[in-house]
Write a structure and sequence with these properties.
- 33% of the residues lie in helices and 24% in strands.
- It starts with a helix and ends with a helix.
- By secondary structure, it is of the alpha/beta class.
- Strands 1, 2, 8, 9, 10, 11, 17 and 18 form an 8-stranded mixed sheet that branches. An 8-stranded mixed sheet has the order 5-6-4-13-14-15-12-16, sandwiched between helices. The protein has a two-stranded antiparallel sheet with strand order 3-7.
């Protein structure tokens, strides 16, 4: 397999419907810069954009093309907050740091939609809200408590009863839910491509087909090598998240990469489109192995969930996603499935993202636990602020050293066993509700 074949954009609904990609030439020769950003996903693109806006000379190198990884393959859900509820964050981190992180995570969708508006990014964005659907009675009290905590902080979020959630989702499968109006949806690959163009217009130089192969200290800065070129920069940001692999091993071992699988139907008949997600909400549920779904602008029903460890287009491995689509939306069970695709999600043991300090003037970020559209965009801006000299006390995250997960090499069998166990628990709860 050639390098270009290895990095070809995978087939997906988003690849088929995004505006054409801009052309970014591979890095050739040696180039000096204030800042080198490694990775062209949401984190790296946001960092490059914000650093360039602040006046830095920025070079971004990407192994394939902007949005090639998880940023161009996710469900497009712009979700406020983190997996942990506000009170949990404040207990874990202390009142001051916890409050800062609650505010940061809760407002992350604001940044996404502000960037889209300010830079005229065409990505079918809509901000009708995010629905968190309760799959079984054991999850109901937790959802009510989560809503209470956010409402105490002045957030416009409401509990939905069974009838309300059924009307907004178009399925009778859920007991209740919540509607958080801070959230929304966008076409993720189109958003990534729009961020790339915005960064370039602000002065950043982007290079596709330029995988970083080595990062090493050089004088008072850093030397980032690619197959055909080198960037010598005072500062470096590594923004490869679940695709870090061997580039910086201690950072890569700080995440557990798992695969998220999605399918998309052909455009649904108008009769179904008026019943299934009729107001355009993005939705996911409270299962341990959550299901998430939306309608794209053409009326295709997109269903996603956790898959096997590896990324694949092999359709037999999508059986559980296809089954979920039929269970939640029986009227759409016979719809033709046009697309099957997958991408990696970076999980962390504490369910929190991090900013990592990797050396003098060298930072990384990642670990979004399935909430990467909003969080990666916001963390990218924070990384740009780190590169701009802002001290840790001014950030909602305290930069830390990488924390490799023990026995990381055995993660694959452990994850696959955990997936089976969680799926059994989810099924048992759903049947008992």
């Amino acid at each position: 397999m050639t390098a270009s074949q290895q990095h070809a954009l995978p087939e997906s609904l988003w690849a088929a419907t995004a505006p054409p990609a801009a052309s970014f030439a591979p890095l050739e020769g040696e180039r000096s810069a204030d800042l080198c950003v490694v990775g062209g996903g949401f984190t790296g693109l946001s960092a490059a954009l914000h650093a360039a806006e602040a006046g830095a000379d920025v070079v971004l190198v990407e192994a394939a093309e902007p949005g090639w990884g998880a940023s161009g393959r996710n469900g497009g859900q712009v979700i406020p907050g983190l997996k942990l509820d506000p009170d949990d964050l404040e207990r874990r981190l202390g009142t001051d740091r916890g409050e800062a992180l609650v505010d940061f995570a809760g407002s992350a969708p604001d940044l996404v939609f502000e960037l889209i508006a300010r830079h005229g990014i065409e990505c079918s964005a809509r901000r009708e809200g995010w629905i968190h659907a309760v799959h079984a009675s054991p999850a109901l009290a937790g959802e009510e408590e989560r809503v209470r905590q956010w409402r105490e902080r002045g957030v416009e979020i409401d509990m939905l009863d069974r009838d309300q959630v059924a009307a907004l989702l178009g399925t009778e499968a859920y007991l209740a839910g919540s509607l958080d109006r801070r959230g929304g949806w966008l076409q993720p690959l189109a958003y990534a491509r729009g961020l790339a163009c915005a960064a370039e217009l602000c002065g950043a130089q982007l290079h596709a087909e330029s995988p970083a192969t080595r990062i090493e200290r050089s004088g008072g800065g850093w030397r980032v090598s690619t197959p055909r070129g080198v960037v010598v920069a005072r500062q470096v940001l590594i923004c490869t998240n679940a695709y870090t692999d061997a580039l910086w091993p201690r950072l890569g071992r700080s995440f557990v990469p798992i695969s998220s699988y999605q399918v998309a139907t052909s455009p649904l008949p108008e009769k179904l489109r008026t019943r299934i997600l009729p107001k355009g909400h993005a939705a996911s549920d409270t299962r341990r192995l959550l299901k998430y779904f939306c309608l794209d602008p053409a009326g295709r029903l997109v269903m996603g969930g956790r898959g096997r460890f590896r990324e694949t287009g092999k359709r037999a491995l999508y059986r559980h996603i296809v089954a979920s689509l039929g269970q939640l939306f029986p009227d759409a069970r016979d719809a033709t499935l046009e697309f099957y695709w997958s991408g990696r999600v970076a999980l962390t043991l504490d369910s929190l993202p991090s900013i990592f300090e990797l050396g003098p003037g060298f930072w990384g970020g990642g670990g979004y636990n399935g909430r990467g559209v909003a969080m990666a965009t916001a963390v990218g801006r924070l990384l740009a602020r780190c590169a701009g000299g802002e001290v840790a006390e001014g950030l909602p995250f305290r930069p830390v050293a990488p924390r490799p997960i023990p026995l990381h090499g055995f993660r694959r069998p452990a994850i696959e066993l955990a997936v089976v166990w969680k799926r059994l628990l989810d099924g048992w709860e759903t049947r008992r509700r």
